[in-house]
Amino acid sequence: MADKWGITPEETRQSVHATHDLVIHRLARPGDVLQTRLTYTGIENKSPGAYTTMKLETSDADDQPVFTTYQGGMYLGVPAKGDDRPAQDTPDVPDLGPLPDKPLFEILVPVAHGAAHTYTESARIWNPIHTDAAVAKAAGLPAIILHGTATLALGVSATISTVAEGNPERVRRIRGRMASMVLMPSTVTVRVQDVTPVGGQDVARFEVLTEDGGPAINQGLVFFDKN
Is 131 in the same domain as 224? Predict the structure, then answer.
């Protein structure tokens, strides 16, 4: 597959998750047969390396949409060739105004030593930079790191607990940017900054900070149905 994309196996191991935007059209149900179609939508040169974007469309057996994911990845130290071609088909982000001086909630979340191994097997995301110290070192990382989506999930779960009384069925969209590495074991801090009504939904802004205060997840948003 790497050869088909025009990159080497070594370059694929330089890839880290950078951005994630998930739109939930309906909740998955037991017995669903789902299929996902992936389309590469853009590529740009950034200072850390090549930034690629893709769109993943998940539909049911009747070809009705269930989830749509807009995802970005960074190939650290790997330049892209040719002109930048940024993605065009991306969801709008509402203008929520300036951030408040103080967050609504601040939650400490422990990250266990084996969190990346557990998440790898549970989510079936097999990238050895998260589980193999030698591969992580070869990729220029200080150690194995927690998956970006695992870190995002910690922030989203804390936001649901504080804003939506722990009810995940209200979630209709999740968005965030992965900005700093989470090492293990450590403790991250989730800050739920505010909640703003937008077009019949409540939009919560949040961030996840690493143990040393770096922005593991910034520009975090969770869109909730009001009911």
Answer: yes
Rounded Cα–Cα distance for residues 188 and 213 (Å): 8
Question: How many CB atoms are closer than 10 A to CB 215?
Answer: 15
115-174: per-residue pLDDT in tens?
999 999 999 998 899 999 999 998 888 999 999 999 999 999 999 999 999 999 999 999
Give which of 183, 197, 188, 187 is closest to 218, Cα–Cα: 188
Q: Which of 168, 29, 160 is nearest to 107 (CA)?
A: 160
Cis peptide before 185 (omega within 30 of 0): yes
For the chain, the domain total comes to 2
The whole-model pTM stands at 0.93
Asked whether residue 110 falls in the same domain as residue 14, the answer is no
SS (H, E, C) the chain: CHHHHCCCHHHHCCEEEEEEEEEECCCCCCCCCCEEEEEEEEEEEECCEEEEEEEEEEECCCCCEEEEEEEEEEEECCCCCCCCECCCCCCCCCCCCCCCCCCCEEEEEEECCCHHHHHHHHHCCCCHHHCCHHHHHHCCCCCCCCCHHHHHHHHHHHHHHHHCCCCHHHEEEEEEEECCCCCCCEEEEEEEEEEEEECCEEEEEEEEECCCCCEEEEEEEEEEECC
Residue with tokens 């049911």: 60
Residue 143 lies in a domain: yes
Nearest to 210 by CA among 192, 227, 186: 186
